[in-house]
Every structure is written in C-alpha cells, then in structure tokens.
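chain and backbone:
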Amino acid sequence: MVTKPRDNLTYSEPIATGEIAVDAAPEVAYRLVSDPVAMAECAEELRAARWIRGATGAAVGNWFSGSNRNGWRRWVTHAEITEADPGSRFAYRVRTPFFVPISRWQYDITADGDGSRVTVTNWLRVPPWFIPFAIFITGQPDRAGTNRANIATTLQRMKARVEGREWRSGR
C-alpha cells in the first residue's frame, strides 16, 4: 500500500506485521520488546529512545520519545504505552510532538515449545491530511512496505539479542 493523500485508508486493518520464533522464554522476549531504549539498538528507523514525563519503565500510561532516521531525514515521535502485560503483550500509540497521531504498535508474545513466538503488528493512525507531510518528513511514500521490511529486520536482530548471539545492526 503506497500511502498517498487520497488513499482510502482502513485504520482497522494493520499495514504491516511480522513474527519470529525465539529460543527464549516469553518473559525474556517481553523484557526486550517492552524496553524502547534497548529496542532502539535492534530497530531500523528508530535510532534512540528515552523515557519522558517521569517514566522509567514499561507501564500503561508511561511515555517515551523516539529519535528516528531514514538516510539524511530525522524526526522525533512520542509514544504512550497502552498495554503492558509482562510475558504476553506490549503496545503503544505513536504521535508527533505536536499531537498528530501516527501509528499503533503491538508486540504479542506466546509460549512456543521451549521458547516463544513474537508477533509485531502495526496500524497506521495518521490522518489523511497529514500523509503528504509524513512522506516529506520520513522520505517514505510506501509506509506499509517500509514497515514490513523494517519489522523483519528488527525481529531478526531482536532474536539474536535475546538468544545471546552476536549481531550487528549495520547502521
């Protein structure tokens, strides 16, 4: 889906998903995915994160800020945690610092044999009027395709990290 201003966006359907099996207990996988500061090391566009508004960890209602990059383009987002169920689900909604909604991210973690399965789902929440600005800011006219590719890369890095294997983000 190329996100053009006149697209008929269905905000109820995710624009990107991905899943991976990891050789780690659900609680171990959750510890990483629910820590945006640590996840920034595994992510593709998210380059750094920090807790804001007095938050120090993953809890519903806590906020973090993300510094993002695509080539020479840079932008900042703010995210509010909407679900924090240790070992099971971590979700947050993202907006611009000036209150425009952008997206929703959800990590579902289930036991899978001796390890776990991590599923990432992403929904677009940006209002249609803001899409041309988002494309200009991020340099990505195909947000769905970009997020699918980035999710796959991030999940591979996350898997290596929770399994204690050597990995490099390639940044």
